[in-house]
Amino acid sequence: MNGEELSLREKILDTSRHFLFTKGYSSLSMRKIAKEIGVSATSIYLYFENKDHLVHTLIEESVEELSRAIEQSAAQKISTIDKFEAIIRAYVEFAMSYSEKYQVIYVMLSSEMSRYPKEKFRKARRGYALLESVIKKGIEEGLMELDEPQIAAYSIWAQLHGVISVVLNQRLDSKIDRNKFIEESIEHIVQGFLVRITTA
């Protein structure tokens, strides 16, 4: 694949991603994307079989970027607590920095599109699996008191997604500073899973 072909593929993906969140999944079509880019619909079919293949590719690439960001952030830390917090912060930072890429991941829940392939969904669990493994390590080291690491990991993912959704959907109370809200939410989540250490 030469540079020109790669450039066109990326242009198709970028345009489709933006179109998806400004117009919606039902309005997305190969013809409309082709018109937006200024190429024939045939050119898009050289890269993607149909609309769902295109959207699945958007999801897969976003998941890969998010997973890589989480893994790289965790790898820079030594202690279990630092890794735990790094994973959480990397998740939030990715969502805030690449909001469309983050939000496209959740299109896989759309009832309008074909089922996201199981083998690709398993790949989408990389970041979550890393978080679960760090939680297990935290339990072994006595830093966390949890019976179900898997449920804990899902709970954290759900809490983070809730915080992010409030911000990205512009539902945050205008009286609340966005950065402070995000920072305190992260702190509440992190501290909420650590063992309380009391001093006499």
General description of the model:
This protein folds into two domains: 1-48, Homeodomain-like (Arc Repressor Mutant, subunit A), CATH 1.10.10; 59-192, Tetracycline Repressor, domain 2. The termini are far apart. It is mainly α. 70% of the residues lie in helices and 0% in strands. The model has no long low-confidence stretch (mean pLDDT 86).
List the helices and strands and how they pair.
Layout: H1 3-23, H2 30-37, H3 41-45, H4 51-75, H5 80-97, H6 99-104, H7 118-123, H8 126-140, H9 149-168, H10 178-192
Helix pairs in contact: 1-2, 4-5, 5-8, 5-9, 8-9, 9-10
Overall average pLDDT: 86
Which structural class do you get from the secondary structure elements?
Answer: mainly alpha
Give the total of domains: 2
Instruction: Based on the coordinates given, report the CATH architecture of the largest domain.
Output: Orthogonal Bundle
CA(first)-CA(last) distance: 67 Å
Q: What characteristics describe this protein?
A:
200 residues; mainly alpha; Arc Repressor Mutant, subunit A; Tetracycline Repressor, domain 2; 2 domains; 10 helices; 70% helix; 0% strand
Summarize the structure.
With 200 residues, the chain is mostly helical.
